[in-house]
Design a protein that fits this description.
By secondary structure, the protein is an all-alpha fold. The protein is built from seven helices and no strands.
């Protein structure tokens, strides 16, 4: 199959099937290069046609807390006390820049997530 820019859903579906076939083929450097090329084309198509919104900042914090096994009380020193943690997690108080820096530095919550506008469904 000759590489080309994916313009339609039909192109996209055909290439996904082709990638599956490539993945079943014996591993060679040329196969790996072809897979990389097709994956790049699929990624470009998906970025336009299936964009993924930035996560809500509070949901990103809660997700990271869950990953690390943290409780709200564990964030007290990062956000300025237990009551402030409660206000932030319950969307009563916005994140300050210093809170964002602490969450980024200590919990490795991505800065892009912390800087994102809260989702409309959470306002």
């Amino acid at each position: 199959m000759k590489p080309k820019i994916l313009k339609t859903e039909k192109d996209y579906d055909r290439v996904l099937r082709y990638i599956e076939d490539l993945m079943r083929a014996p591993k060679t450097s040329s196969r790996n290069e072809e897979l990389d090329l097709w994956a790049t084309l699929v990624e470009a198509y998906e970025k336009i046609h299936y964009p993924i919104a930035d996560p809500d900042p509070i949901e990103a914090i809660k997700f990271r807390m869950d990953q690390m096994g943290l409780r709200p009380a564990d964030l007290a020193k990062l956000l300025g006390g237990r009551s402030r943690v409660s206000e932030v997690l319950n969307r009563k108080r916005p994140l300050s820049v210093s809170m964002m820096r602490s969450l980024y530095r200590e919990l490795h919550v991505p800065a892009e997530s912390l800087l994102a506008e809260p989702s409309a469904k959470y306002r």
